[in-house]
Specification:
Structural class: mainly alpha
Helix content: over 70%
Number of helices: 10
Strand content: under 5%
Order of helices and strands: HHHHHHHHHHEEE
Radius of gyration: 56 Å
Oligomer: single chain
Length: about 400
């Protein structure tokens, strides 16, 4: 009995000594790993938000580019129409100016013809009958008489015809002037409408261009944010790998110490104590619920083999002299299982683990130990051990 007491006392002293050497470091390292993982999750969310914003801004920019293209085409068409209208208006005004000049000339010619005709009529009326007869009687022959008579009549008819011609020309030019003035008014109205349309389109083009510029700037900023988050995520992952490696080294060192001490103890123990790792543990429903909840937290997405391996690690620790000797003690040991620290374990325990994890816990408690390991971590390729799914056991 004294010998056994000495062994137990030595074991407890060894546990206290190892805990004082490594416990604080392991707990601090695990806390850092959990914090880094939380940072990575937060950065992933921010990156996703930035990427979603970038996608939305990209769609908006594409839409604005399409709108701007249509507006540019409409503005070009409106500009061409306005240019054509202004050209027609210029031509019409030039023609109108020439028409006014022609009309003034026609009026002058009409007035001159009218004045000339009045003078000839006045001259003929002022001539007495005797004078007219005298002109006719001075004819040398009948032919000459007739010629002189016809000449007098021709002068009168010529004056009348020329006056009618000038009046008709004047009326035609005046009518043309009215048409040109009406056409000018229509073109001026059309010019104003098209100028207003062009101005409106130009404003829309300018506004859309500004929106597109702003969207591109926001898109570039969102992409830069996403890239920045991605770069920070990579840094955090590298840091996590370093911490994982450090934690693995610390665990391995501690494990080696434990194995050495256990080897010394096993040499002193009886044969029946050496085979107790394959015997079932005495556990109640509470222990099974605790173990099933931890298995779900740590290996809920893993294969059934992975679930058994996680449960085996817990039982191996319970049986080890350098860990608490109960399932609750092992699970709640400070700094060992991150789901316990984060609160996720408590939530699963309250709700109850799924059937697969409950079954795995029952089989492990019944003696089905699949790995002879005390630790497991997420497999990053930097830790030597038994790889099962996404975990490495060592």
């Amino acid at each position: 009995m004294n010998k056994m007491v000495k062994k137990i006392t030595g074991t407890l002293l060894l546990i206290c000594f190892i805990s004082s050497l490594y416990g604080g470091t392991i707990q601090a390292t695990q806390s850092q790993i959990d914090e880094v993982r939380d940072n990575i999750d937060e950065l992933e969310e921010k990156k996703e938000e930035a990427q979603q914003q970038a996608d939305a801004l990209s769609d908006s920019a594409d839409s604005l580019i399409g709108d701007l293209k249509e507006l540019d085409e409409s503005l070009a068409q409106a500009t061409n129409e306005l240019n054509e209208t202004e050209a027609q208006l210029k031509s019409t005004r030039e023609e109108l100016e020439q028409t006014k000049v022609d009309l003034e000339a026609a009026k002058v010619q009409e007035q001159q013809q009218y004045d000339a005709m009045k003078k000839r009529i006045q001259f003929m009326y002022e001539m007495d009958t005797d004078s007219m007869l005298e002109i006719l009687m001075e004819s040398n022959s009948i032919v000459d008489f007739l010629n002189r008579s016809e000449y007098i009549v021709s002068i009168h008819e010529y004056d009348r015809n020329m006056l009618d011609t000038y009046r008709a020309t004047k009326e035609e030019i005046a009518s043309k002037e009215q048409q040109l003035e009406a056409q000018e008014a229509e073109l001026v109205a059309l010019q104003q409408q098209e100028a207003a349309k062009k101005q409106e389109l130009a404003s829309l083009v300018n506004s859309t261009s500004q929106k597109l510029t702003a969207a591109k700037e926001q898109l570039a900023a969102a992409k830069a944010d996403a890239a920045s988050y991605e770069a920070e995520i990579e840094k955090q992952k590298e840091y996590e790998e370093q911490l994982e490696a450090q934690k693995a080294a610390e665990d391995a060192k501690r494990l080696e110490e434990i194995r050495q001490q256990e080897e010394e103890l096993r040499q002193q123990q009886e044969q029946e104590q050496q085979g107790q790792n394959n015997t079932p543990l005495i556990a109640d429903a509470s222990d099974q619920a605790l173990l099933a909840a931890l298995i779900q937290c740590e290996a809920g997405g893993e294969s059934y083999e992975g679930k058994l391996a996680v449960g085996s690690v817990v039982i191996n620790r319970v049986r080890s002299s350098y860990f608490p000797n109960s399932i609750a003690g092992v699970i709640y040991q400070s700094g060992q299982f991150s789901p316990v620290a984060s609160g996720r374990f408590a939530a699963v325990l309250a709700e109850g683990a799924d059937a697969s994890c409950v079954q795995a816990a029952a089989e492990v408690l019944g003696g089905r130990i699949t790995v002879d390991c005390l630790y497991f971590r997420r497999n990053t390729g930097t830790i030597a051990g038994i790889v099962i799914g996404n975990h490495v056991f060592y």
